[in-house]
Amino acid sequence: MEIKSSYEARIRSTRDPRFKNAYDNMLDGCCQITESERDEDDFIAGISGTIKRNPADVESLVRRGIAYSDRGDTDKAINDFTEVLHLNPTANIYHFRGRCYAEHKKFEDAITDLSKAINMQPYFFDALIERGKIYEELENYFNAEEDYIAVFMLDNDDIDNEVKIAMYKDYELNGLYGKAEDILFELKETDNMIINKIIRLFYKRLLMKDDSELVEGNLSRDEIMEEINKL
């Protein structure tokens, strides 16, 4: 009996219904793992034989790359995904390889691959989230926020939210930090998870400012720390 594995969830990573057919047909079913394949070593050995007979078998290379990634052999996974990209470059494979680079802390390579995935498929939810996390780790808070805002707008794309995001940015730019925070709190009612990420970045940026500037913007350091502890 065929079972769904975590592999399929990885491949079908978009949440935007506008792109339900965006993934290549060659990926369909490539992550259906049978009971006999659940032993990773046997599975990898078997599919390696298939690849040896046909080195250009894209589906098998993808399957093996994901299997390598799942067991932590990211170097081997990167090699397989790189070969697939030579044969048939797609947003999914750039996403997979970008994740492997991120696990290796090769953040610039990861950003490059995730950016290619997003350029090919602009509504790629997971790629945007992952690139945002990398930017955040690199303390590039503005770029991280832009990715999180893009994710937020995927599920909340209406004029009212666009206006609120624009107002939030304008308030922060003009030092009206209390008002910027109020807008974010309003948006939290729409999407708590993503807006919390944006709020966290907002506070991180503010903590880099002088106390006098924060007080003038009607949001003190103590208030910021109190809210951070609630996140």
What does this structure look like?
The protein is mostly helical. The chain folds into two domains: 1-138, Alpha Horseshoe (Serine Threonine Protein Phosphatase 5, Tetratricopeptide repeat), CATH 1.25.40.10; 141-231. It is 69% helix and 3% strand. The chain contains 13 helices and two strands, in the order βαβαααααααααααα. The chain has a two-stranded antiparallel ribbon with strand order 1-2. α5 packs antiparallel against α6 (107-120) and α7 packs antiparallel against α8 (141-155). The radius of gyration is 21 Å and the shape is elongated.
SS summary, helix count: 13
Please, how many domains?
A: 2
Strand content bin? under 5%
Radius of gyration: 21 Å
CATH class of the largest domain: Mainly Alpha
What can be said about the biggest beta sheet? 2 strands, antiparallel
- What's the architecture of the largest domain, going by CATH? Alpha Horseshoe
Task: Outline the fold blueprint.
Layout: E1 2-4, H1 6-11, E2 32-34, H2 40-53, H3 58-70, H4 74-87, H5 91-103, H6 107-120, H7 125-137, H8 141-155, H9 159-173, H10 177-188, H11 192-206, H12 211-216, H13 221-230
Brief overview:
This protein has 13 helices and two strands; from the N terminus they run βαβαααααααααααα. The protein is mainly alpha-helical and 231 residues long. The chain has a two-stranded antiparallel sheet.
